[in-house]
Design brief:
306 residues, alpha+beta, Glutaredoxin, Serine Threonine Protein Phosphatase 5, Tetratricopeptide repeat, 2 domains
Length: 306
């Protein structure tokens, strides 16, 4: 799976359905639904640690240090058990980087991992001091790849955090913050920081004075962001609210809301309902980007199930 260009998930007219169905696999992973794997292997005699990632990011920000985050499930695979971060800890420290292992055998760590849309482990993240996702690498994660990330993380982290600061400054200084908030939210989405984008998108979606097209886009992305962070019911609620609030006066809002509902139902294998919602989206506003996305998703649906 290639997530190198996550911005396409949110803003391009046509998106492959496989990207929007991933949260089902994510839910199975983070809830520990694997079978037949035997007991997990603890990292130490005292057991794996609970990680307060928000606190770790705050610490990294105060020190101006980027983060290497390795999400693992020891006991699941040899790659998960490799302890690569620990074996390279000296090199990591010498480069002024904070390293964190997130063992999702720990229930609180599984909850933390939800924000990253993890579908398989191990996953290596490079984070800026402010928590922006710079790189996301899935297996195989080798020592060579890790060294490459160590060498390149500093410059990219600085660039992204400076951009974040400028966008946050625009929000603070704007007399009409809604467009600036939307731009900042899209920046977060482009980095796969959907959790950070959600409150901004909610603000834009709920601002009655904002441009209707902007509200629709924000509301649709808000619903999809909830799906990304494994909050399907919240995503469904936002899609339904979009239809209820803006749908009566906007065909594009009806298209956007039904498209997102179709995404969720397709992922849950409710094929007949998803088909109906995609068709409603297409018929509501045929020339809209949401209708085009719905048409692409509809074409990829399997045959109807009983």
């Amino acid at each position: 799976m290639n997530l190198a260009s996550p911005s396409s998930y949110w803003v391009t007219p046509v998106v492959s359905l496989k990207f929007v169905l991933l949260y089902v696999a994510l839910t199975s992973l983070v809830l520990g639904c694997r079978t037949g794997l035997g007991p997990p292997t603890p990292l130490s005699s005292t057991g794996p640690a609970t990680v307060d990632l928000d606190a770790e990011v705050a610490r990294a920000d105060s020190q101006g240090k980027p983060i290497l985050l390795l999400v693992t499930e020891p006991g699941h695979s040899a790659a998960d058990n490799s302890r690569l971060i620990r074996r390279c800890s000296k090199n990591i420290t010498e480069h002024g980087i904070i390293s964190i292992e997130l063992d999702i055998n720990v229930s609180r760590n599984r909850a933390t991992a939800l924000r990253f849309h993890i579908t398989n482990t191990p996953v290596l993240f490079c984070l800026s001091p402010k928590g922006l996702i710079i790189n996301r690498d899935e297996a195989p994660i080798t020592k060579s790849l890790l060294f490459q990330r160590i060498e390149g993380i500093g410059a990219k982290a600085t660039e992204l955090d400076e951009k974040l600061g400028l966008l946050q400054g625009s929000v603070a200084q704007s007399s009409n913050a809604t467009p600036a908030e939307f731009e900042l939210a899209n920046f977060f989405l482009a980095q796969q920081n959907a959790r950070e984008a959600i409150p901004l998108l909610e603000t834009v979606a709920r601002t009655e004075a904002a441009n209707t097209t902007l509200r629709i886009s924000a509301w649709a992305n808000l619903a999809r962001a909830h799906l990304w962070v494994a909050e399907p019911e919240k995503g469904r609620h936002e899609a339904a609210a979009l239809i209820a609030v803006l749908g009566p006066r906007s065909a594009e809002a009806r298209a956007a809301g039904n498209y997102v509902l179709g995404i969720q139902d397709a992922a849950a294998r409710r094929t007949a309902r998803a088909r109906q919602e995609f068709e409603i989206a297409i018929n509501a506003a045929p020339d809209s980007p949401y209708a085009k996305q719905a048409a692409a998703a509809l074409a990829m649906l399997p045959g109807e199930e009983n």
